[in-house]
Amino acid sequence: AKTFRLAVIPGDGIGKEVVREGMRVLEHMAEESEGKFSFESDYFPWGCEYYLENGKMMDEDGLEQIRNHDAIYFGAVGFPGVPDHISLWGLRLAICQGFDQWANIRPVEFLPGVPRRLNHPDVDNLNWVLVRENSEGEYSGIGGRNFAGRGTGNEVAVQSALFTEKGCERIIRFAFDLARTRDRKKVTSVTKSNAQQYGMVLWDEVFARVSKDYPDVETDQRLVDAMAAEFVLHPEELEVVVASNLFADILSDLGSALAGSLGVAASANLNPERRTPSMFESVHGSAPDIAGKGVANPIGTIGSAALMLDHLGLAEEAARLNNAIAETTRQGILTRDLGGTYDTVEVTDAIIQNLAKVKEQAH
Ligand code: NAD
Ligand code: MN
């Protein structure tokens, strides 16, 4: 029997509601594994409420408190009353960058039974994966504001994007390695090297060099604005899409909306060397507009639990959980964001029930 130590950080808003449901699914799966695996979960109350009480999003030694866990299961941060840059940098980015979780994978999956936002002849068979550079780029945190000019109408602010050859190379190699595991082996690189002549041109050069090591993988390149259109017009061209921190973030909201809703998109922030724990979270934020109502779609966060199971070496369980999610949407058990009438708990209950059903089908 293997016991996995989870650091659970529900965070703010609907983060709390969906992580509670994700943990219910994981505990259920552990229980029915009959001793094959179990979870020892530590909960951390970090987030905006913690900030308002303690003046910090997480403890100073927060990273040390979770460094030895096998994985981090994360909800979302952000709530009215705390500036978004404080909540993001104080917790989520502190963990991603502090643990060098430099690869963020964000699958775009078109689940059955979900209303299609995309008019495409092969919409049921579309799926691609975004690989987001997760440690530098536009999220380098380098810049400053001209405080002398503050309030004068002449203030100047600089926000720099940092691209290192090593940072570009590792994420691009990661994308090529991932492409090799898929049926269609193709990587599309996204930049804006017409307008951004330093960092993006370095990225392009690294992409050209690394691609020579993968002659079996088809390559393509797009400017990010054209890629936004491609998501809608020719999504059949997409397989593995690799992009910088900001561009991939924007494209992943577009991808999840096309696939139905922000609420269905899962993600994994990986430290591929496994020197530090990786973090699993939905793509969406804390959704203050629906927080506390019990109507949030839990699928993104439960799908992130499937990515976590896979990362922990439980590939079969991960596949079964994904099948149970797909069976649930196929049955029309959908939250409001997908045009349904079910609530967060009901969708989770159905997923748990369908775990048994897909198990029988597999036998
Ligand atoms: P958001 O993702 O929270 O919400 C955007 C829209 O999608 C809202 O209308 C919301 O109701 C809807 N939505 C999101 N998730 C849903 C779900 N599971 N089920 C149903 N509907 C869902 O983005 P936002 O409104 O731009 O940001 C809100 C807060 O979240 C901000 O403070 C922002 O900084 C933060 N944020 C945090 C993360 C994170 O922690 N990873 C990511 C994005 C935004
Ligand atoms: Mn985002």
TrEMBL record:
<protein>
    <recommendedName>
        <fullName>D-malate dehydrogenase (decarboxylating)</fullName>
        <ecNumber>1.1.1.83</ecNumber>
    </recommendedName>
</protein>
<dbReference type="GO" id="GO:0000287">
    <property type="term" value="F:magnesium ion binding"/>
</dbReference>
<comment type="similarity">
    <text>Belongs to the isocitrate and isopropylmalate dehydrogenases family.</text>
</comment>
<dbReference type="GO" id="GO:0051287">
    <property type="term" value="F:NAD binding"/>
</dbReference>
<dbReference type="InterPro" id="IPR024084">
    <property type="entry name" value="IsoPropMal-DH-like_dom"/>
</dbReference>
<dbReference type="InterPro" id="IPR050501">
    <property type="entry name" value="ICDH/IPMDH"/>
</dbReference>
<keyword id="KW-0464">Manganese</keyword>
<keyword id="KW-0479">Metal-binding</keyword>
<dbReference type="GO" id="GO:0016829">
    <property type="term" value="F:lyase activity"/>
</dbReference>
<dbReference type="InterPro" id="IPR019818">
    <property type="entry name" value="IsoCit/isopropylmalate_DH_CS"/>
</dbReference>
<dbReference type="Pfam" id="PF00180">
    <property type="entry name" value="Iso_dh"/>
</dbReference>
<feature type="domain" description="Isopropylmalate dehydrogenase-like">
    <location>
        <begin position="5"/>
        <end position="351"/>
    </location>
</feature>
<keyword id="KW-0456">Lyase</keyword>
<keyword id="KW-0560">Oxidoreductase</keyword>
<dbReference type="GO" id="GO:0046553">
    <property type="term" value="F:D-malate dehydrogenase (decarboxylating) (NAD+) activity"/>
</dbReference>
<dbReference type="InterPro" id="IPR011829">
    <property type="entry name" value="TTC_DH"/>
</dbReference>
<keyword id="KW-0520">NAD</keyword>
